[in-house]
Amino acid sequence: MNRTPHHHPLRLRRSVLSVPAANGRALAKSRTLDCDAIIFDLEDSVLPEKKAEARAALVSHFTALDRTSGREHVIRINPLEGPDGALDLETVLACMPDAVLLPKVSEPQEVLTVADWLSEAGADDGPRLWAMIETAASLLNLAAIAEIGRTHGGRLDCFVVGLNDLRKETGIADMAGRPFLVPLLLQVVVAARASGLDVVDAVFNDFSDEDAFEAECRQARQMGFDGKMLIHPVQIEAANAAFGVTEAEAAEALAIVAAFAAPDNAGKAVVNIAGRMVEKLHADQAGRLLAKVDLINERKTKT
Ligand SMILES: CC(C)(COP(=O)(O)OP(=O)(O)OC[C@H]1O[C@@H](n2cnc3c(N)ncnc32)[C@H](O)[C@@H]1OP(=O)(O)O)[C@@H](O)C(=O)NCCC(=O)NCCSC(=O)C[C@H](O)C(=O)O
Ligand SMILES: [Mg+2]
């Protein structure tokens, strides 16, 4: 089997804000916020008796949505086996978001079912799929779930970790630094990368504790995450900074690209930059980082 991961086009997913679809004020506020993606939530932040109202609110919200903002718009649906999943999928067809976020995925078949449903509904070029990794079973089946992204039309392109559900099911403690969760989080990152998927870290519930939030963002970035799922607007700026590109990182990337473009280094696979070995793979990484800088600058012109 060819294990070379595909890479979908680079997208910014530094700050992925969840907005309860039943909360009119939060929906209105979301139009003004500088996050990279918005998840309109029909699942756990909406009471069962408010689900129908929330679906109607989303259809109305999407009719006036600015699709040129460069932001991704995602709808989190309810599990398909429950009373709301199928109705939520009809709402997805009415709204045509950029992606559908599947909650509590445990088996690859759950991703396939929605991918097939969207194709049969004629939405072949329609929403992509994101999957919440938040059950113990999803961790056991990570590679198989991620592989669906490569083998089934490439519709799956992002994992989002859900630690509230995972801690509830497993009993793993909620502790500063996440010592017992880090090994699991790294498995999610590795499985996602092996299939060319993006990967977004879990929400941080205590939105009033800025320092602890920033520390968790730094940790997530060091583990390889692309961004963080957020619950409150106050978290956006810190997430954009933590998962963004610093001036020093951009300058280093430019130096690497320039070194490989220099005539003296023509035909070299490895060069010496100020006493440090730099390989062609670092130039590829640098190019991707600079493309991210371009995307960030492009976004600034639209907000
Ligand atoms: C946590 C909250 C209930 C707090 O809400 P509130 O008390 O209204 O906060 P503030 O008064 O500080 O709000 C200030 C203004 O900001 C707006 N606001 C607040 N939150 C949001 C938001 N998420 N998106 C957009 N706008 C927001 C307020 O409306 C105020 O503005 P204004 O009305 O103009 O004055 C609330 O923040 C909240 O509900 N957050 C999201 C909850 C949610 O989406 N939960 C689901 C995702 S969590 C998850 O998925 C876990 C995962 O599955 C797992 O298992 O781990
Ligand atoms: Mg959850």
TrEMBL record:
Keywords of this entry: Lyase, Magnesium, Metal-binding
Q: Name one GO molecular function term.
A: citryl-CoA lyase activity
Q: Which cofactor does it need?
A: Mg(2+)
**Binding-site list for Mg(2+):** E134, D165
Give the source's domain of life in one word. Answer: Bacteria
Q: Where are the transmembrane segments?
A: none
Residues that, per the record, bind substrate: R76, E134
Domain HpcH/HpaI aldolase/citrate lyase stretches: 14-233
The family database entries (InterPro entries) matched by this protein are listed as: Aldolase/citrate-lyase_domain, Citrate_lyase_beta/mcl1/mcl2, Pyrv/PenolPyrv_kinase-like_dom, Pyrv_kinase-like_dom_sf
Q: Name one GO biological process term.
A: oxaloacetate metabolic process
Describe the family membership recorded for this protein in Swiss-Prot or TrEMBL.
Belongs to the HpcH/HpaI aldolase family.
Return the PANTHER family for the record: CITRATE LYASE SUBUNIT BETA (PTHR32308:SF10), LYASE BETA SUBUNIT, PUTATIVE (AFU_ORTHOLOGUE AFUA_4G13030)-RELATED (PTHR32308)
- Would you tell me the protein name for this molecule? Citrate lyase subunit beta/citryl-CoA lyase
Q: Which organism is it from?
A: Shinella fusca
